[in-house]
Amino acid sequence: MPNHTEHPVDEQAILLRIAEGDAQAFEIFYKLYYPRLFRFILRVTRDAENIEELIQETLLLIWEQPERFNHESKVSTWVFGIAYRKALKALSKAGKYSADVDIEDFHETLGDPLANLADNFETADWLNRALAHLPPDQRAVIELTFYHGLPYQEIAKILDCPENTVKTRMFHARKKLQAFA
């Protein structure tokens, strides 16, 4: 993931260039979002087989319809919202979600996926197994809060639900995670 403090990226400007058909701007956008979407979609769906397809569908929609961004949120909120809806649709089609994916298998793509939270728990393995037992909406809240550093207000926009629902999901997710301690 790029270091935004050293080289801030004007995502709205890139999106405007994409709207003008600038393939180079889309390549920048793709490289910026691919690892973030990979991690987010993997956490929500636990479906390693379809993750590439969901990322491609998300980014293709952005390439084909960048004008859908309404400037009422951050670009990242809009992108994660698209990815979340596509992930839920895939889960719905499958009729279930898988809890047997080991996120450590994707270390090369994600970097150190558990670096921020692993310090707060005994082992990263424990955390991976515990998160696997959460429903997708609660995993999404955990992922967006702790790994992407988003406030509840932004998460509510991504998940298309009230902010209090996000807080409730976090409350229940934490209770479930405590049960694994």
From TrEMBL:
InterPro entries: RNA_pol_sigma-70-like, RNA_pol_sigma-70_dom, RNA_pol_sigma70_r2, RNA_pol_sigma70_r4_t2, RNA_pol_sigma_r2, RNA_pol_sigma_r3/r4-like, Tscrpt_reg_LuxR_C, WH-like_DNA-bd_sf. The keyword Transcription applies. GO terms for molecular function: DNA binding; sigma factor activity. One of its GO terms (biological process) is DNA-templated transcription initiation. Pfam families: Sigma70_r2, Sigma70_r4_2. Keywords: Sigma factor, Transcription, Transcription regulation. Belongs to the sigma-70 factor family. ECF subfamily. This is HTH luxR-type domain-containing protein. The keyword Transcription regulation applies. Residues 149-176 form the HTH luxR-type domain.
